[in-house]
Design brief:
Blueprint (H helix, E strand, L loop, with lengths): L4 H8 L7 E4 L2 E4 L1 H11 L4 E10 L2 E10 L2 E10 L5
Antiparallel strand pairs: 1-2, 3-4, 4-5
Length: 84
C-alpha cells in the first residue's frame, strides 16, 4: 500500500473555515478535522512518539506518523508548566 496522487490531493486540500479553532490569539486546524481527513485516506494510519527529551525547563518530542506505509518524523518543543 502506498500513497497515490489522489490520496495526497485529499490530504493537502485546504480545510474549511469551520475546521479551525482559535486559542490564545492563534489559529489551529482542529484535531477532529485532521484525524477525519487522515482516516478517509488510511483508516489504519499510525502516530507514535519516538523520543521525549527534557531540555532545561522544556520538553522536546520527536514523533513519527505513517500513512499507507509512508512515514515522516518531526520534532517540536514547549516549556513545561509546573503546578505548585
Amino acid at each position: 500500500m502506498t500513497l497515490t496522487k489522489e490520496d495526497i490531493a485529499k490530504l493537502t486540500y485546504p480545510f474549511k473555515r469551520e475546521d479551525h479553532d482559535f486559542l490564545e490569539g492563534y489559529v489551529y486546524i482542529s484535531e477532529e478535522a485532521i484525524t477525519e481527513r487522515i482516516e478517509r485516506v488510511d483508516p489504519e494510519w499510525r502516530f507514535r512518539i519516538q523520543q521525549m527529551i527534557q531540555y532545561g525547563d522544556s520538553v522536546i518530542c520527536v514523533a513519527v506518523m505513517t500513512i499507507k506505509g509512508v512515514s515522516r518524523s518531526n520534532g517540536g518543543g514547549n516549556p513545561v508548566q509546573r503546578d505548585k
